[in-house]
Amino acid sequence: MLYLLGVVAFALAILVSVSLHEAGHMITAKRFGMKVTRYFVGFGPTVWSFRRGETEYGLKAIPLGGFCKIVGMTPQDDDVDPADEPRAMWRFPLWKRTVVMSAGSIAHFLLAIVTLWIAAIFMGLPNPDYPTNQAEIRSEPARIELAPCVVRENPPTRACRSGDPASPAAQASLRDGDVITAIGSTPVANWGQMLDAVRATKPGPIPVSYVRDGATHTAQVDLAEVQRPPQDRADGPVGPVSALGVGLGTPPTITYGPVAAFGATADFTGDMAVNTVKALQRIPQKVPALWAAITGEERDVDTPISVVGASRLGGEAVQHGLWEVFVLLFISLNFFIGVFNLLPLLPMDGGHIAIAWFERARSWLFARLGRPDPGRVDYFKLMPLTYALILIGGAFTLLTITADVVNPITLIQR
C-alpha cells in the first residue's frame, strides 16, 4: 500500500510540475499582451472546464501533461482571427517571445530550487565530503556513528520499531566519532576491513579496540545477528552475519540554516547542471543498454528512466521511508526536464527560441550585406525534421517505459 501511495504521489507531483510549466507560458504571455485561449491539465476528452475572460481553463481525461494555446505562435498559424492579429505571439519583440518560451523551463528550475532550499533546511542535502561509491566507502577510516537500533531483516532501510534490539556498540558505551582499530584479534585500518572482520565473526561477545581522543580503549561488544547479503555482492544470497550497530561516521546528509541553505542550494544546483549535461550526452550510448535490459540482461543503473520509472522509484522510496530520496528525485527530474525543454530542437521550447534568434541573426546579417530581409522562417519546411525528431523521441520514450516496466531500476537491491 505504501508503495502504491508513493507511486501515485510522485506521479501527481510531476503532473503538478508540468502544469506549472504550462502556467509559466500562460502567465508571461498574458502579461505581455498575447492572447491565450486555452489552458488545460491533461490530454484527451475534456472532463471539466470553465471560461474566465478570453481563456478556457480545464481538466482533460488523460493526466499525462498539459498545454496552453497562445494565438499565433508562428507566422504560419492559420487559425488566427483577423481581430487577434496584433496580439499574435510571432509579432511581439524577440525578447518577449524568448521569455514566454523559456518560462516553462524557468518554472521547473524555480520549483526545483525552492524545494531544494526547503530540503536543505528541514531534511538535509547530500554531504559533498561523503564517499559516493562502495570502493570509496570501504577505504574511509572506520570512524563510527551509532545506529539507533539494529534492523535484523534485509534490506535494513526501514526506521526503527519497538522491539528492535539496541545497537551493540551503544550498549558497550562506544560513542560517535570513535575509530575502530580491531575486532577481536583482527586489526582493521579502514571501514571495509572493519565490516569484513565483523561479518567474519560469530554473533556474541567480542573485544573491540577503538581510539577516542588519541587514546586506545577496548570494550566488550555483544555482536547482534542480522540477515545480510555478502559484503561484495548487494544482490547475493542473504544469510546470517554479525552486526556492530554502527554507520559510517561521515554524515551522508547535512542540514543548514536558512541563510547557509542559499549557498548549499547554489552548490547543489551547479552539480545538478553538470550532471544533467553529462546525462544528456550519455543518452545515445545508453540506448543499447536499455534494449539489453528489455531482452533479459541486468539493468544498468546509469540508463535513462521514464516518468513511469521515476514514479516507481518514488513509490519504493516511500515504502522504505526514504523521503529524502523521494524529494531529491523530484528535484533532479524537474531540473532535467527544464534543461531538456531548452534543447534547440523542435518541438521543444528551445527549438522555437533557437528559430527566433536565428531569424534575428539572419536579418541582422542581411541588413549589413545590403540585402532584403528574408523574413520569418517557414515552419512548414521544418515539418519533416520535426516529425523525425518526434518519431525518435517517441521511440526512445517507449523504450524507456518498457524497460521501466519489465526490468526497472530499484533503490533496494534484492
From TrEMBL:
Which residue ranges traverse the bilayer? 99-125, 322-343, 385-406
Q: How does it sit in the membrane?
A: Multi-pass membrane protein
Instruction: Tell me which InterPro entries the record gives.
Output: PDZ_6 (IPR041489), PDZ_sf (IPR036034), Pept_M50_Zn (IPR004387), Peptidase_M50 (IPR008915)
Q: Which residues form the Peptidase M50 domain?
A: 9-362
BP terms from Gene Ontology: proteolysis
The terms under GO molecular function for this entry are:
peptidase activity
Keyword Transit peptide on entry: no
Q: Does the keyword tRNA-binding apply?
A: no
Gene3D superfamilies assigned: 2.30.42.10
Domain PDZ, chain residue ranges per copy? 162-202
Q: Where in the cell is it found?
A: Membrane
Lineage, top-rank taxon, reads Bacteria
- Keyword annotations from UniProtKB, A to Z: Hydrolase, Membrane, Metalloprotease, Protease, Transmembrane, Transmembrane helix, Zinc
- According to its UniProt record, which cofactors does this protein need? Zn(2+)
Q: Which PANTHER family match?
A: MEMBRANE METALLOPROTEASE ARASP2, CHLOROPLASTIC-RELATED, REGULATOR OF SIGMA-E PROTEASE RSEP
The Swiss-Prot or TrEMBL record describes its family as follows: Belongs to the peptidase M50B family.
Protein's name according to its UniProt entry: Site-2 protease family protein
What does the record give as the organism's lineage?
Bacteria, Bacillati, Actinomycetota, Actinomycetes, Micromonosporales
